[in-house]
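ingest -> validate -> predict -> emit
validate: passed (alphabet ok, no gaps, 295 aa)
predict: started
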Amino acid sequence: MKKITILSGKGGVGKSSITASLAAALSKKHRIVAADCDVDASNLALVLGIGELKEKKRLSTNQTAEFDLDKCTGCRKCFQECYFHAIGWKNNKPRLKQFGCEGCGVCELVCPANAVKLVNIGNAELGHAKTKYGFPVVSAQLGIGQSGSGKVVTEVRKMAEEKGKEINAELMLIDAAAGIGCPVIASVAGVDYVLAVTEPTPSGFADLKRALKMVDHFNIPYGLIINRHDINPEKTKEIKEFAGSNNIEIIYEIPYDKCFVDALVRLMPIIGHEKKYERLFFGIRDKLINNIKLH
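emit:
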């Protein structure tokens, strides 16, 4: 099963909208599975018209400190050494702040009375559903104030792999988070191709370059989509010059169109809302299929 990750660097450039339409286009010719790896703010299933995931299960990919107050001697070492200031102090005893602990384990390490231990904590919910286009989508959502998104992404990819095997999928399409942090790295590692989406704004271009530098580290081939290319022709020209000087293939330039907003409001991909965009996304699909040599 081939794997393509779609990333952007900057958030809000239209990456998930493009992923949804591309998934729908791909599913017309190939057996695919989609994985929403933007677990801090997952929305791919919503864009594909799915209101509720099935077979949801709780994930525990993170740990938090737990205190045995009967053993605690009140030495305050855990309070003094906690880098994240997640430990309060009341009545000469430690008190864990609800959303502060990162599970680093320093408190457990420095406690002379063995009054602290790390315990697994449920930090996300994972599930899947079948779209009206016939392919499964796997998604997860971190709990409020929880961390560990990189490990959650790994669990999303594992389930997507399982669902892909069930239908003998030829391709996994991964919707990555914005930025270049742990969840994005977990979304990119081991894939066959990366499709980067950007917009012609200073922040969009700057974040694109950071994201592509990260992809270069993994030596993964990639191409570029410039979304809303007509809102700033000068910046679009600058992005194209950058792409040309670095031998980056521009897969497509997509114009600004309010129809994309209308489609999102209706919880559907643009190719399901406006037929005129079918040809555009079929073109993107065919270029990607050729690039990863999937026939």
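Residues 138 and 159 are 7 Å apart (CA to CA).
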